Prior knowledge:
Two copies of one chain form a homodimer. The first copy, chain A, is an alpha/beta fold. Chain A has helices at residues 13-31, 35-51, 53-64, 68-91, 141-149, 162-178, 192-200, 213-225, 246-265, 287-295, 305-319, 351-356, 358-361, 382-388, 406-418, 502-505, and strands spanning 97-100, 114-120, 124-127, 153-156, 186-189, 206-210, 232-235, 242-244, 277-281, 300-301, 325-328, 332-334, 340-342, 345-350, 369-375, 392-398, 419-424, 463-469, 489-492. Chain A folds into two domains: 13-236 and 451-463, Aldehyde Dehydrogenase, Chain A, domain 1 (3-Layer(aba) Sandwich), CATH 3.40.605; 242-424, Aldehyde Dehydrogenase, Chain A, domain 2, CATH 3.40.309. Chain A contains 16 helices and 19 strands. The longest helix of chain A has 24 residues, at 68-91. Residues 1-6 of chain A have low confidence and may be disordered.
Amino acid sequence: MSTTSSPATETTPEQLETVLAAAATAAPAWAATPSTTRARALVAVADALLAHADDLVPVGMRETGLAEARLRGELLRTAVQLRLFADTVVDGSYLDVRIDEADPDFALGARPELRRVLVPLGPVLNFAASNFPFAFSVAGGDTAAILAAGCPVILKVHDGHPGLSLATAAVVEDALRASGAPDGVFQTIVGQDAGVTALRDERVRAGSFTGSLRAGRILADIAAARPVPIPFFGELGSVNPVFVTGQAVEESGEAIATGFVGSVAGSAGQLCTKPGFVYLPEAAGLDDTIRTAAEAVPEHRLLNDRITAGYAERRDTILGTPGVRVIAEGSLRVDADGDGWATPTIVAVSIDALRTGRDRLLDEAFGPLSILVEVPADTPLAPLVAEFCEGNLTATLHAGAEEMSDDLVELVGQLSAHAGRVLFGGWPTGVAVTPAMQHGGPWPATTNDSSTSVGTAAITRFLRPVAFQNMPDRFLPAVLRSDAVGIPAAVAPAGASKQWGEAATA
Amino acid sequence: MSTTSSPATETTPEQLETVLAAAATAAPAWAATPSTTRARALVAVADALLAHADDLVPVGMRETGLAEARLRGELLRTAVQLRLFADTVVDGSYLDVRIDEADPDFALGARPELRRVLVPLGPVLNFAASNFPFAFSVAGGDTAAILAAGCPVILKVHDGHPGLSLATAAVVEDALRASGAPDGVFQTIVGQDAGVTALRDERVRAGSFTGSLRAGRILADIAAARPVPIPFFGELGSVNPVFVTGQAVEESGEAIATGFVGSVAGSAGQLCTKPGFVYLPEAAGLDDTIRTAAEAVPEHRLLNDRITAGYAERRDTILGTPGVRVIAEGSLRVDADGDGWATPTIVAVSIDALRTGRDRLLDEAFGPLSILVEVPADTPLAPLVAEFCEGNLTATLHAGAEEMSDDLVELVGQLSAHAGRVLFGGWPTGVAVTPAMQHGGPWPATTNDSSTSVGTAAITRFLRPVAFQNMPDRFLPAVLRSDAVGIPAAVAPAGASKQWGEAATA
């Protein structure tokens, strides 16, 4: 994207040291900032981003090739996400406060009073993604969750949209400063060297990342190999399998075919939840609908030249694999500016061809390409998951409205063993930002499938528990004091331990 | 302990394959077992252990040198812990169920229905500890949490108490079988090779460990370097600093001195929460009380020859460090059977001597040794934490009943930044098994300070979230269906998103 990106100067070692020192200094101050103040700062950032939409969106369009409507929607999502975390902070449930009352008659002898709460980890290094220049970048979900948790953010800018990144960062910094947040609570760094050096620095206490499996594995290994290892939350790759039954085809085949192409084509398929494989009945009769829909999709620019090159290679490999039948060949061209442009490519393979060509076919193709897998009639679907699916962010079942069988129940069980979100009907693209969302799944979808990067549970990645034993109010964090109001707490009353186990056997 | 331990045959590669296959087979069956059945099985194990106390305790005494009262108390703790997890399973809060109602008027467009729940990870490899032959071994806290979570256990027996391990395992297996638990839900393996091979096996989905920093780091690195990395929860080492103010010495110096020696001497100091460093005022005048109390402690056998050798080396190093003043030299001898026996060794150093000798002094001494650090009057205490303390399981403050200062507030803040449990008064040994307990802390106390190995929150280590989107009841896990009763759930009602952020700015 050299022709469309503003230059962003790489962070020097001296600058990085200043950033790390400022983040470490800001950490206790931000952690001690009252939750209402932190929440107001998040809302202020949300409002400032929306107020600057007309400045930011055109820069994003230039640098990423994404459409105006998509970017305006994404900016709104980014603001809504900041506001959701603001409410999460004020609500306080995320602190998981637990209080054991002192109990002289505890089953194992006298029990002390214990008050447990989650506390911020400290500075977090957040590697921005290329494919969501707002929602998974400078002011995106990770930044919102990190700030909400009470941790400073060191944001490693993605080189795919440097101009937008720096413009967004200026908006964020101004809004935080005006809200009274301490200096150093949000800072950006530029360049791969600075990112890797920061990940190794002892002042950085956690990392978050959205990007390729290759880069994510390298960074996860660095985080794990430190003298003091730190948690690293990487979202790496997912092919999001979809299973369609014959009954579903009968009831709504045409809608499935057009919905599928829409989900593959949106944002030129550069979404981590793009459906990469659709297992459907042989001779389902949907080829023409799919081809027509795919051929109606206008050319869409790809995010950057690395993604164009990667997509070209995956597409060539797939098209060159024996047994692959082209339904819609789509296009891929590089223009005079070096930008890649593509329309959807949809192919089909038999189960046998998939089995033979698995090493060429099963990896993610990041871009507007998807593979239909044609399943012979009466083939049990559940075993296909173990045979062909690694870990995924999502998995989807299209079945008849009332359809039910042991195989389908087993299939849903297998899908939930291989994905973090399992859909009935619909398509996995378009991730709702809500309290119950799960965006994370077994490796290689994420490095840590006990976490999510979307939804309110994302905040827990940046917290750890501390229990205070017999601690007087004057030394407790405010949320644990006897006069704390409105903080949800799970209280274990004195005397209860004598009955432990009776609930289980009643 | 060759003279006192029963032989335990190392698991062969063929046997290990059988164990791994059985665990993988048991995983979906145990995960699908209703929570009440799982809970009853845990209670049955608890009852069976207590019923076999007279068989098990003497074996434990022979193999570990621990006293009868300690082992009977520990067995009761182990049973109570199983019962606590039984109630945890029945209660269902641990599932963190979240439900977003479908919302056509969601802030970002129509929102699907989402139902999120935590599901079991699959087979977990649990490395038993030597120092709690019941509570952190075969049927200990990790086993209870793993089974409660719905995961099969592969228990790597500690070679310090092989006879007790196999006898305990037989009790556990019988109780589980009688409760209808699937075959393969609890199995033991013997030998370091089998443990390492299992940790690398793709069927194993998580590891837990209590032991040395050296071994724990090796295992954590293996878990992180797998083609598919898995979570590894290791409890490694902790020196549990204690800070005593002059006011505390004035108010209760004698009680602090005798309480300190009791905490160091118990179980011959072979506890992960033993207070290894006590920062107290210079010339506090407690030397005689400490010496008298320490010299009154009878000789106690050490757990095994590795621990004897390690303790001898650490003790020699500390006693040979310039500036170390002996208060009670204690004893350490190896008897004709090769067993080590010790009485408490208490030494004192100045701040300056600690600074000069930090490389020799700051590491954990696993055994009945503790170091008093003599702090000149008017020295701020809070900065000592950053200078001398790494991560710890616990940290303790003894201050006056009404004492208060900015330095003490800052000290408690520093202690909570360096430990998972912060005590006011009392001693860190004797960990209560309760809902609010936190037993885990920053590296090197644990590999993962967002987790605990004691208390109900320990169950979450072995679970991951799955969200079901628009999924009909017939395909949902029972706890998520519309007719599920008694499962606590956080519901996000339709319409609420329009007000997100208002709570924060109200």
